[in-house]
């Protein structure tokens, strides 16, 4: 019997099944970086051209090439006002999709910054919302790579359930332009949001609301 945690046992079973389709590369042996050269440096990211060795089941190494966009980790927040059962939505220009896109409060973390400190800093800068940390509930949804085949950007995704909060002046970067508003859940669920990280947070909240609604059908629920 394979020991370890339930997660480790699951991964052991998965690896055993997946090995049946192997083309010879031993995926139990970690990949080895042979070389890495920075070929582009921008304002908020750089690109590394890498040569990587994968080991086959006979111990022979096979060299592959990959380019990786190196980017700071980020925070993504679905923000819920418990007193009104409304959610914060934003709109701003996104160069990747070349449109003014709907989304959630989000932003890059500073080096060494605590995840929650970064989330509350970005929330205040973009929307002016400053929660009472002592009464705020936090659902940590998880940490997800934005596109693990091409970038190391890691998104820390969460849902913030706010009690009392105050409003302060927003603080944008010189080239940053963000609109924000509180909307009901029904509108948020129907909004066309194209950011995968935002949708992870919204789907997490949709499941939470469904569970809360069905836990006691005889009582009115704030989350229905």
Automatic annotation (TrEMBL):
EC id: 3.6.1.13
PROSITE patterns in the record: NUDIX, NUDIX_BOX
Cofactor: Mg(2+)
GO molecular function, one term: ADP-ribose diphosphatase activity
Pfam families: NUDIX
Boundaries of every Nudix hydrolase domain copy: 69-206
Keywords: Hydrolase
Keyword match Hydrolase: yes
Family matches, as SUPFAM superfamilies: Nudix
One record GO biological process: nucleoside phosphate metabolic process
InterPro entries in the cross-refs: NUDIX_hydrolase-like_dom_sf (IPR015797), NUDIX_hydrolase_CS (IPR020084), NUDIX_hydrolase_dom (IPR000086)
Keyword Cell membrane on entry: no
Transmembrane segments: none
PANTHER family for this protein: NUDIX HYDROLASE DOMAIN-CONTAINING PROTEIN, UDP/ADP-SUGAR PYROPHOSPHATASE
Name of the protein in question: NTP pyrophosphohydrolase
Organism: Bifidobacterium longum subsp. suis
